[in-house]
Amino acid sequence: MTDTPRARKRTPLLPGLLVLSLLTAGALFAPQLAPSPPAAQSLENGLAAPALDHPLGRDRLGRDQLSRVLYGARVSLGIGLGTVALSLMLGVLLGCAAGYLGGPVDFLIMRLVDVLLAFPGLLLAIALAAVLGPGAGNVVLALGLTAWTSYARLARGEVLSLRRREHVLAAEAMGLGPARVVARHLLPLLAAPLLVQASFGVAGAIVAESSLSFLGLGVQAPSPSWGSMLNDGRSFLLVAPHLTIFPGLAILFTVLGLNSLGDALRDRLDVRFPG
Amino acid sequence: MRGILYTTPEAPVARAVAGVCLALIGLSVAILLLPGCNAPPRQVGTLAVALEAMPTQLDPRLATDAHSSRIASLLFASLLRRDAGGRAVAWLASSWQADDPLTWRFSLRSDFVFHDRRPVTADDVVASYRALMDPVLGSPRKAMLASVQSIEKTGPYEVVFKLSQPDAAFLEAASFAVLPSDLAAERHLSSEQLIGAGPYRLLEVRHGDRVLLEAHGDYADGYPPIERIEFRVIPDETMRALELQHGSVDLVQNALDPDTVSWLKKNVGHLEIRRSPSNSFQYLGLNLDHPALADKRVRRALAMAIDRQAIVDYLLAGRARVASGLLPPQHWAHHDGGPAIVYAPDQAGRLLDRAGYPRRGPDGTRLTLDYKTTTQQLRRRLAEAIAAQLSALGVKLKLSSWEWGTFYSDIKKGNFDSYSLAWVGISDPDILRNVFHSGMTPPLGANRGRFADRRVDRLTDKALLTETVQQRARLYARVQKRLAALLPVIPLWWPENVVVTSRRLKGFTPHPSGDLLGLASAELLEKPPHVDTSPEGRAARDPLR
Amino acid sequence: MLPYLSRRLAVLVPTVLGVATVVFLLTHAMPGDPVDIMLGEYAQAADREALSRRLGLDRPVSEQYLSFLSGLARGDLGRSIQGDQPVAELVTLHAPATAELALAALLIAITIALPLGLLSAWNAGGAVDRLSLAGSMLGVAVPNFWLGPMLVLLFSIHLGWLPVSGRGGAAHLVLPALTLGTAMAGLLVRMTRSSLLEVMGEDYVRTARAKGLGERMVMLRHVLANALTPLLSVLGLQLGGLLAGAVITETIFAWPGLGRLMVQAIYSRDYPVVQGCVLVIAVTYVLVNLLTDLAYAWANPRVNFGDDDD
Fold it and tell me: Which of A108, B477, B538, C245 has minimal Cβ neighbours within 10 Å of its Cβ?
């Protein structure tokens, strides 16, 4: 692009990857890294400020915050990845079906998308929690069941624009069934935009989990997630601000890391859609 | 080449810019034009009280939630009300007596008038009670009037209730709101029609936002000194604390985290903490249909392994009393029922060994139980603390927190191993029959643990038919003794009633039931009095802590 | 244009019917009985049944569903179970508060996002760009339930400029709108930026540059305007999300809006109120999107109405 005065520099890949690998390492090696078990209580030391032996302080039940942030990485990243996996699966399946098959199938699926988009997702989450009880699995279910629509729209749009390509038409002419055509000839082309969208999706799910925690619909005690820690700490916003700051920072860094990764991937994979 | 076709797309440019500008201007105008909601600046003489949720109903005949009844007791007078010890005292009635166990006679004061200045007469009382008893209205109060056969006017200021059977808890029903006779039976009452004879009248209701009351100038017990009371709905706990700190809310009752209360006390000079015993009782409910929990040794072991004092000290900031029985200590029918349960985890372990639950497996688990709780933060925290203490004993509690509707439905169905809840606003000891009588399993009563004991059944039945307070107290003492031995629920603590108020509020004493009628005789100063905020000064003012 | 409009409006019917059905099924599938929740410890079995019958809750679910739909067709949303008021009245009472908050938040989001997005795109890849992108992520990653009280601590407690919570005059609107607006601004900055960058790569922009127009002129006359139009439809989607997504901000700031009414009603199993709120939110969402699409079309005559309508 020599004619553009300020040539677009690509977003560097390294920072995002670095943040993410740090977090993954923290999550994987939490048992080795954590100074104490995340559920070990000590009521008399509740709300202790950060100190040498407990660098991030202790919560109301006297549990070590550092250990809980580390173990929380497992839960939060797990929820993020789980949500994206579920919504990706649903979204790609339904989006491809709508885009490729068209006609009444397309109409039905797109009306379903319309209904879900117009439907307050929060109600779905509350209803699911009321029926199944809160917990990490149900958080994934609630978030996944609302988040798939954006993948479906993306997949459908791409399929619509790709399905008249020569190699697709050739495959059809050879008598390949719709499932095969989509799987062999369209999905590979969809992978790049979906991957970019997914990296933003993980960040979105981690933030959304904290909102669900606010409504009491997050993960089940005593397993910590960043969102639930943040929410538990909210009662002590005046009394012990450190209880909200550290899980909050963890979420912030993850979101920053994932977004910068998404940007970097987009620049490299030449995906053109607004993130 | 598209570039040639599209050298300068000028028209869309101008249009887009214009469009966005128009949209922005439109937005600003729209915001300014939206139905103005001009909250008047709070005048001096207005006391602001924060509530956690909007009262579902201000109609006293139909309302059941605590927020509604707080407001209702300021709006509507009743024949009797309860003093701090739970005893009935006169209000609309000047005197009352039982001619015989089936006949209750109430004489009314003649100086009470409704907010519309009409006098309160026997006709109003009769109409109010008949409406409550009429199935057409569908009042939830009807059940408590089940023993009432009729209510008749025997003079302009005298009414007589005829009962079909002796009912010692009948006086509970004398605290129902009295409405003007022409409104008492209306199917729907608008907020303008909510007229009572209480110290305040309803000025304005804004759904989901606030309820504004104004002093009733002709109130029989004297013009209330505080001109207006504004109940504001503030659902978030942190914001309630910040409103107090800001000075824009003057009273919050039992709706702050214990640590936040301590923080406010220490850091905000214009606030004051008022504490009193409450009529509440927090317990650990057990399902006696569970094979392990059916064994009273197991129940006792669980009770002995919970360090209730530590939980009270650290998680409740000491603002509760470890319960040594069921009914709160200030209640007239209270009886400890025997030696208090002490924290003795080792003994508890031995008890479980003997009951057939030794430590098993690599982690030494004796028993695994479900524990259900609501999504409320403090409740979850308490559950986690109890779970940690019991896990030291080898009893694994699997915690799950449920949204209230599901939780309540499960508890009623007996779909739980253990849970924790509180009895709130305990007034008549007949609650013991409601909770522990074998015939009172839901939906008939609140015996959720499916407890069954013939002696408790007999004693509670008998106490209901007994007239004198002394005799009843003796019977309930025996009930409580029996229950202390069998432990169908594990008593946890009696929470205190904790009210954080502005120092401008003078002469207000919290009521154990949380009732706010005391505001009718309290005063609101324009400025807080000068106070000594040094630790010594605080200690001198607040002997409780 | 007219056939397009009628087609869009026709699609509205199955969408609303779908939403109505989903909300009905969902609320009735939740365990918990409105009458139990309402009566609490007070009532006895007989009263409970009487109340159930009065509220029509003892009828088979299919019958309740049909009467809900027929009520809907007549524009009747029913009466609240808990508060005994007409649902339409409750919704009308709460809707202005939500609209006020959502519009103000949108205004704040646009005011923050447009300049930042422009700055970012102008310096794409540079330090300013990185900083503004990271800053915008702050808006996304900081939860409203934390940001709200922090803003209150700063502006109400320490500086004493603004009221803490509640709905009132313009001063009451500032903090909740800021809380809600910043989260939205975060996304919008990214959208603006990528939308601008996309247009900057278009041929006509290059041509304009080649014709020797100044960089600023190019940016202003060609890039900005063309990038703004797709943003419009994004804004529509966002505004729709704000209606229901404001629940947390409404809760924090004691804002008597629709979101809180809905959540309260879910907790008390007040089916008619939940259904009413969800329907109003859904219909508003669909209409707002239709309007933004129309505005988009008006601003950008190249839109082909024969295209599919997603």
Answer: A108
pLDDT at res. A220 = 83
CATH code linked to domain C90-299: 1.10.3720.10
Distance from CA of B150 to the nearest CA of A (A): 44
Indicate which of C165, C298, C302 best probes the interface with B, i.e. most B CBs within 10 Å of its own CB.
Answer: C165
Question: A244 touching C, CB under 8 A?
Answer: yes
> Closest partner residue to A274 among C15, C30, C195, by Cβ?
C195
- Kindly list the residues from chain A whose CB atom is less than 8 angstroms away from the CB atom of residue B52: none
In terms of Cβ atoms closer than 10 Å to its own Cβ (0-12, 13-18, 19+), residue B81 is buried
| List of chain C residues whose C-beta atoms are within 8 Å of the C-beta of residue B29 | none
* pLDDT of B9 higher than 60: no
- pLDDT of C56-104, one tens digit each? 888 889 999 999 999 998 989 998 988 888 999 999 999 999 999 999 9
In this predicted structure, the answer to whether residue B508 has a pLDDT above a threshold of 90 is yes
Asked if C29's CB is within 8 angstroms of A131's CB, the reply is yes
The verdict on a CB contact (< 8 Å) between C39 and B140 is yes
Mean pLDDT for chain B overall: 88
Contact status of C281 with chain A (Cβ, < 8 Å): yes
**What span, in angstroms and rounded, lies between the C-alpha atoms of B352 and B346?**
10
User: Please, which residues bridge with residue B70 across strands?
Assistant: none
pLDDT of residue C245: 62
- Return the pLDDT at B29: 59
Is the CB of C206 less than 8 angstroms away from the CB of B3?
yes
Confidence of residue B535 (pLDDT cuts 50, 70, 90): very low
Which residues 171-210 of chain C have a CB within 8 Å of chain A?
190-191, 194-195, 197-198, 200-201, 206, 209-210
User: Hey, how many other C-beta atoms are within 10 angstroms of the C-beta on B129?
Assistant: 23
For chain C, the chains sharing at least 3 beta-carbon pairs closer than 8 angstroms are A, B
> What tens digit of pLDDT does each residue of B289-337 get?
999 999 999 999 999 999 999 999 999 999 999 999 999 998 989 998 8
Bridge pairing between strands B46-51 and B228-233: parallel
Among B131-145, B465-479, C86-100, the range scoring the smallest mean pLDDT is B131-145
Q: CB B314 to CB A46 under 8 A?
A: yes
Amino acid B513: pLDDT: 87
In B202-261, the residues whose Cβ lies within 8 Å of chain A are: 237-238, 241-242, 257, 259-260
- Domain ranges for chain C, please list them: 2-73, 90-299
Could you report the predicted ipTM of this complex, rounded to two decimals? 0.89
Nearest-neighbour CA in chain B from C269: distance (Å) = 7
Nearest to C42 among B27, B28, B64 (CB): B64
- Chain A residue numbers touching C247 (CB-CB < 8 A): 122, 215
The 10s digit of each residue's pLDDT in B280-301 is: 999 999 999 999 999 999 999 9
Confidence (pTM): 0.88
CA distance A66 to B330: 45
The full 3-state SS of chain A, as one line of letters, equals CCCCCCCCCCCCCHHHHHHHHHHHHHHHCHHHHCCCCCCCCCHHHCCCCCCCCCCCCECCCCCEHHHHHHHHHHHHHHHHHHHHHHHHHHHHHHHHHHHHHCHHHHHHHHHHHHHHHHCCHHHHHHHHHHHHCCCHHHHHHHHHHHHHHHHHHHHHHHHHHHCCCHHHHHHHHCCCCHHHHHHHHHHHHHHHHHHHHHHHHHHHHHHHHHHHHHCCCCCCCCCCCHHHHHHHHHCCCCCCCHHHHHHHHHHHHHHHHHHHHHHHHHHHHCCCCCC
What CA–CA distance (Å, rounded) separates A74 from A68?
A: 10
**Cβ–Cβ of A47/B259 closer than 8 Å?**
yes
Which two three-digit tokens encode residue A125? 């989450």
